[in-house]
Amino acid sequence: QVHLVESGGGSVQSGGSLRLSCAASEGFYYYLGWFRQAPGKEREWVAVIDVDGSTSVADSVKGRFTISQDSAKTTQSLQMNSLRPEDTGMYYCAAGKGWRRHLLRLLVPTRADFDSWGQGTQVTVSS
Hints:
This protein is mainly beta. It is built from no helices and eleven strands. The termini are far apart. The mean pLDDT is about 95.
């Protein structure tokens, strides 16, 4: 199990920006990602970054969200711009080392692709 700690959540008005970070320690992984869950809705995938630097983001956030990692590949960040009320939710960092690693850029990752989860950080976007 990878220990994951998120930070950077908060409240912002529509059109604003937030930057989430996730520090990973212990364990082994090939990729880190973000999911989000709005009240009463299922957890949905947002973005993923492989340790080789390749990235993928969900269509709903493409052009607004950018995922990156530091040179040590132990901290990943999610830069969220042009935020909308529908981006509101709990954001979870996740780590994985599954066999679908090289397919994640082509497919929509699922929760089953990740085996370690952070506690989550709340993002609230008001209109």
